[in-house]
């Protein structure tokens, strides 16, 4: 094979990988937009808009299928090895994580439909804070992926503790509301599920961070991550604990 032909093949592969990266980033941005739209319909108590957000999840699913097809084609046609193979497999794993992020965003919108039929609740404002933290995590890890920035990916991986702490605090707040007024148990239960979906979005952002680290460094991320989701064994909640 001539040097010119080899250079052409390498450039063609690089172009395909660049296009794949762009598709993944676009898919991730769409998932973040879905999350923000889901929180918006919670605030507006708009069940029709919520259903629209749920229906839009199909677009993310379609993108994930297209990216999976592109990955299989790259494997078949380019037979990548070593670092190139890591790039391809990272794309496949990241696409799956983004697809789950879209699912969780759709679940938040879906839960907002019955919630909009109940009387407005003060704790809904805490949900927006969780969503802001999760959206920022996803945006930052997408930037780390686009720029092949392992250190930024590691920072996102570490910073997920902030979302864990906020989720635990919100969980305790909702338990307090339910203890004080049994009439709000049903709507608060919806909020609990919505909050857990948002917390899981953060977990998938850390999965993406691990994929980026492996893609760049060629080794798994083996550090111990601080977990602050204490809801599986929360401290007792007292009636006087509710924040003002």
TrEMBL record:
Residues 24-111, 128-212 form the PhoU domain. Its main location: cytoplasm. Signal peptide: none annotated. Residues 224-244 are annotated as: Disordered. The keyword Transport applies. InterPro entries: PhoU, PhoU-like_sf, PhoU_dom. Keywords: Cytoplasm, Phosphate transport, Transport. It is found in: Cytoplasm. Homodimer. Belongs to the PhoU family. Plays a role in the regulation of phosphate uptake. This is Phosphate-specific transport system accessory protein PhoU. It comes from Dyella humi. The gene is phoU.
């Amino acid at each position: 094979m001539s040097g010119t032909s080899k250079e052409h093949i390498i450039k063609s592969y690089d172009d395909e990988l660049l296009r794949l990266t762009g598709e993944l980033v676009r898919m991730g941005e769409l998932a973040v937009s879905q999350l923000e739209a889901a929180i918006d319909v919670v605030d507006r108590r708009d069940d029709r808009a919520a259903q629209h957000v749920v229906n839009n999840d199909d677009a993310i699913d379609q993108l994930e299928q297209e990216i999976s097809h592109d990955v299989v084609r790259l494997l078949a046609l380019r037979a990548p090895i070593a670092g190139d193979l890591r790039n391809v497999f990272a794309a496949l794993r990241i696409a799956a994580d983004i697809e789950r992020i879209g699912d969780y965003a759709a679940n938040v919108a879906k839960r907002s439909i019955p919630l909009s039929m109940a009387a407005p609740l003060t704790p809904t404002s805490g949900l927006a804070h969780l969503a802001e933290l999760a959206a920022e995590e996803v945006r930052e890890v997408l930037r780390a992926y686009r720029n092949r920035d392992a250190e930024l990916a590691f920072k996102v991986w570490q910073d997920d503790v902030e979302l864990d702490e906020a989720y635990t605090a919100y969980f305790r707040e909702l338990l307090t509301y339910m203890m004080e007024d049994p009439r709000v148990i049903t709507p608060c239960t919806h909020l609990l599920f919505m909050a857990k979906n948002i917390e899981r979005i953060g977990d998938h952002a850390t999965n993406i961070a691990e994929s980026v680290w492996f893609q760049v460094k060629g080794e798994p991320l083996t550090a111990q991550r601080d977990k602050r989701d204490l809801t599986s064994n929360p401290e007792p909640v007292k009636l006087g604990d509710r924040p003002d």
